[in-house]
TrEMBL record:
NCBIfam families: mutY. GO terms for biological process: base-excision repair; mismatch repair. It comes from the Bacteria. The gene is mutY. This is Adenine DNA glycosylase. The lineage of its organism: Bacteria, Pseudomonadati, Bacteroidota, Sphingobacteriia, Sphingobacteriales.
Length: 347
DNA sequence: AACACGGGGTT
DNA sequence: AACCCAGTGTT
């Protein structure tokens, strides 16, 4: 048996029971694939059910409002996925009459669908012979064939896509793609792969040369920026002053609180002297001495403090608005903001 | 080619 | 703390 046949045989015996594998509906598969981008199956599954239930068809999705989509997406991260989904749903509704495309060349044009997702949807929904290359596939191929070209260099990406195409079983691409990804996720894991029970270890270069620890190779260029967020919570217990974020920064179009960002960590007495504080009015005071919350993103570390102010400002800045405390659950809030607000208002 | 974009699990 | 997850879009 060749590699593909071995992986498919393994898959048939060991696959997990995942809901999106029970359909060939391109729309449902699209939902699952976008949700699972850079996201573990266990984390994404509840969101998959949530979206599939709320929007059973792409027509239902296209009718949604962005606020509603982001609220459903809350907590999953990479929120541009949610915003792009709405744009794509609307385009599919208008230009494809609500019939979700199944061909790679159509799918790749859509917002939020790149090479991986186009290959996944086209193969799973219409058995088009396109090979998926995700993190799992990079790992399996790098190890099995002993390829040490970095998976995140342009050259490496081309190379692995080519290998994936060569290995693909053109007669059953859907099954092959599921198999190689499941194999990478369950057996050929990043750390401590289960080589002892691996059906293809005798053909695996990394196993034979004891190199699984070093493959795949990845270029790392992590520069993490530190940012200091001073949030103001102002509320009389019934209403609370909120802010809607704009584009061009993290958490685009989501909701947070009035924010003063500083270049370093500062204490409340220093904060009071800042010119930005003037918008909150004269003779203001803090009602708490907040802890520093560290919130880690891919390229940023946020050091967040939530300051409770004692009175409403006289006028509002752009993006600010009052909302009823009971309406907070309808707003899409970043995780760290949500946790604090939930705690503060004792949800 | 490099970077931005979240949140969470594993080691 | 480092690494990675069923990646994509922008510059």
């Amino acid at each position: 048996m060749d590699l593909s046949a071995e992986l498919i045989a393994w898959y048939n015996d060991n696959k997990r029971d995942l809901p999106w594998r029970k359909t060939t509906d391109a729309y449902i598969i699209w939902l699952s694939e976008i949700i699972l981008q850079q996201t573990r199956v266990e984390q994404g599954t509840p969101y998959f059910y949530r979206f599939a239930e709320k929007y059973p068809t792409v027509t239902d999705f296209a009718a949604a409002h962005e606020d509603e989509v982001l609220r459903l997406w809350q907590g999953l991260g990479y929120y541009s996925r949610g915003r792009n989904m709405l744009k794509t749903a609307q385009l599919v509704q208008q230009q494809y009459s609500g019939v979700f495309p199944v061909k790679y060349n159509e799918l790749i044009k859509l917002k939020g669908i790149g090479e991986y997702t186009a290959a996944a949807i086209s193969s799973f929904s219409s058995n088009e012979a396109k090979a998926v290359v995700d993190g799992n596939v990079y790992r399996v191929l790098a190890r099995y064939f002993g390829v040490d070209e970095p998976i995140n260099s342009p050259k490496g990406k081309k190379m692995f896509q080519q290998i994936a195409n060569d290995v693909l079983d053109k007669a059953r691409p859907a099954l092959h793609n599921q198999a190689i990804m499941e194999f990478g996720a369950m057996l050929c894991k990043p750390k401590k792969p289960a080589c002892g029970i691996c059906p293809v270890r005798l053909g695996c270069v990394a196993f034979k040369t004891n190199a699984t620890t070093y493959l795949p190779v990845k270029i790392k260029t992590v520069k993490v920026r530190k940012r200091y967020f001073n949030y103001m919570l102002i509320s009389d217990g019934k209403e609370v002053l909120m802010n809607k974020r704009g584009e061009g920064d993290i958490w685009a179009n989501m909701y947070d609180l009035p924010l003063i960002e500083t270049t370093e960590l500062i204490e409340q007495n220093e904060l009071l002297k800042l010119p930005q504080m003037k918008v909150f009015g004269e003779n203001i005071a803090f009602k708490n001495n907040p802890a520093i919350i560290k919130h880690v993103l891919t390229h940023q570390q946020l050091f967040i403090r939530f300051h409770v102010l004692d009175k409403f400002p006289d006028k509002l800045q752009s993006g600010w608005f009052y909302t009823d405390v009971n309406n907070l659950e309808n707003l899409a809030l970043p995780k760290a903001i949500f946790i604090f607000i939930k705690y503060f208002f004792n949800f």
